Give the backbone structure.
Amino acid sequence: IHDCLRGRLDADKGTITMSGISKYAEQLTNANRIVMVACGTSWHAGLVAEYIFEELCRINVEVEYASEFRYRNPVIAPGDVILAISQSGETADTLVAIENAKKQGAIIMGIVNVVGSSIARLSDTGAYTHAGPEIGVASTKAFTGQLAVLTMVALKVALEKGTITHERFLQLVRELNAIPEKVAKILEQNDAIKALAEKYKDATNCLYLGRGYNFPVALEGALKLKEISYIHAEGYPAAEMKHGPIALVDSELPVIFIATKDSYHEKVISNMQEIKARKGRVVAIINEGDKQSIALADDVIVVPETDEILAPMLNCIPLQLLAYHIGVAKGFDVDKPRNLAKSVTV
Ligand code: F1P
């Protein structure tokens, strides 16, 4: 996050500089629609960004799996901006999706980690995440980097469009600047999360639930568990639980709630009550002093408070650590999960 913010965010002056997007800044600001295309973890970052762009910029956003988008015949209209998100910059589905859109005249913006990669080269404009090399196959820090960059882009567009007040802009810039320190605080809890991993490592299924900005975090937590611990996991919007997944809940099922304080908190608490009433085992990611969650959950992981828009950057980290420690406890090579490739180039 430090590397990603450095040179771009000046919290003292309250400015964000992103030279990479300046060339097409006007098209982005006046975009009729932003279509985010990505795969896996990067797609989850796109989902969080959808909420952020809609909230701050009031632009219509769609988030598409590149692996579907490339084979469809999507309608690309003048004023559409295609935003490709990729850690490796080499994912074939994302690459072909943007090639197709480019042929139809769309402007392509790339949010890519690997400098000089194919997606970066094909993009008309964009910003690197500068998250550094991902050592493991499963994306982790790239996700937080993508969220930081996407948030900075949204903030710049919102300011330009006038859909955000200067005060709110400054408030978010200051909060963004405080994220690295808060991430470090979460990492200090490594041992406690390792102990939780021991407790839950024999689960055969896991449900991850969140609302709003934290719904994609639930998806990402479940994906990490699948990728590196080989435990079947599903991420769901907590509000959708009653439309099906609630049938899975019994005393064996761990349900991981992303329950940090935000505008959805009371609703998340009532979902937690529904799980407890069916004897599910609840692990909750919470903020300090959340008595309601503490009373309901079997286990909690406390993360520092931040603005709800930025919370996914913090909330994903204990979930990544949990998946990591469960994978290690089960004796798996978490850096090279079976059947997965760093960049899926076919
Ligand atoms: C997309 C992705 C990763 C996942 C795995 C396979 O990669 O699905 O999210 O962890 O490595 O590829 P990318 O387009 O972000 O490089």
The chain has 15 helices and twelve strands.
